[in-house]
Amino acid sequence: MKSYRKELWFEVPKRRQLLHITDAVETCLRDSGIREGLCLVNAMHITASVFINDDESGLHGDFEKWLERLAPEKPYSQYAHNGYEDNADAHLKRTIMGREVVVAVTEGKLDFGPWERIFYGEFDGGRRKRVLVKIIGE
User: Fold this and answer.
1) In the CATH scheme, what architecture does the domain 2-137 have?
2) Contact between residue 42 and residue 132 where contact means Cβ atoms under 8 Å apart
3) DSSP string computed for 80-112
4) Burial of 117: CB neighbours in 10 Å, binned 0-12, 13-18, 19+
């Protein structure tokens, strides 16, 4: 069995943004040479997320509104965590959207269902953060 590891780095200037990262993950898969196996993609920061969904701008706007209703950024004073930092909402948003995804690799391709794409969700931007891509298989 072969193993491949790569870190993808992102610097999102906004506090919150969704980035479509499927192409970057597919590049990692090609570089790995693995044809059959599993591909793990996970956010390496507690205020960011990796998830699978449709690449549709209306849906992305819906995510923003929905997450903000569930865990509003302000007022900062509503969260016990906020003191040294003001990012309690980002921790909660990450929990809702998830830490990682695992995608089957079949015949050298990510084995997606219709419309599935991989996204990085940044909920406390303004500094460099990374995503781990780990691919195992043959």
Assistant:
1) Sandwich (2.60)
2) yes
3) SS-SS-S-HHHHHHHHHH-SEEEEEEETTEE--
4) middle
> Tokens 């997320």 sit at which residue?
49
The predicted-structure confidence for 110-126, as pLDDT tens digits, reads as follows 999 999 999 999 999 99
Per-domain boundaries in the chain: 2-137
Give the separation between CA 52 and CA 98, rounded to whole angstroms.
10
Compute the distance between CA of residue 38 and CA of residue 36 in angstroms, rounded to an integer. Answer: 7
Length of the chain: 138
- pLDDT tens by residue, 60-113: 999 999 999 999 999 999 999 999 899 999 999 999 999 999 999 999 999 999
Within the chain, residue ranges assigned H as helices are 22-32, 57-70, 88-97
Closest CA relative to residue 43, chosen from 135, 136, 118: 118
| pLDDT value of residue 84 | 87
